[in-house]
Amino acid sequence: MDAIYIANEVLRRPGLAYQRLDSLCRAGVVEPSVKGATGKGSRRVYNEDDVKALLIGERLRVAGLSAAAIRHVLSGLRRTRNLTGSTCVVTDGRGVTCLGLWL
User: Fold this and answer.
1) Residues 3-16: pLDDT tens digits?
2) Is the separation of the CB atoms in 38 and 49 below 8 Å?
């Protein structure tokens, strides 16, 4: 069985505050795969790929990408199953390039 995480466990990872986690989810940048929020006080439940996507999404946001651009990048990484860190994503804040394997 894959590991699952609630928000408090996700926030133990460096580089992500609760407000940013909430904002990335509300903007649809990352949607919890295990269980989405269903109202006030409900808990989102994430799997390992969701956590990786959140961390990548936050790095891209800090680099200046819009929510729509981040969704596009993460969609491509998920589609090619490249959330493992084996792909180098480069941005100038406007565009994004994925450079094959990062060794």
Assistant:
1) 888 888 888 877 77
2) no
Q: Say how far apart CA 76 and CA 71 lie, in whole Å.
A: 9
Contact 87, 100 (CB under 8 A): yes
What's the DSSP call for residue 35? B
pLDDT at residue number 101: 47
Q: How far apart are CA 39 and CA 9, in angstroms?
A: 20
30-75 residue pLDDT tens = 888 888 777 777 788 888 888 888 888 888 888 888 888 888 888 8
Query: Global pTM?
Result: 0.74
In order of start, what are the domains of the chain with their CATH numbers? 4-101 (1.10.1660)
Q: How far apart are CA 71 and CA 34, in angstroms?
A: 18
49, 79 in Cβ contact below 8 A?
A: no
Between the alpha carbon of residue 4 and those of residues 8, 92, 96, the distances in Å are: 12, 33, 30
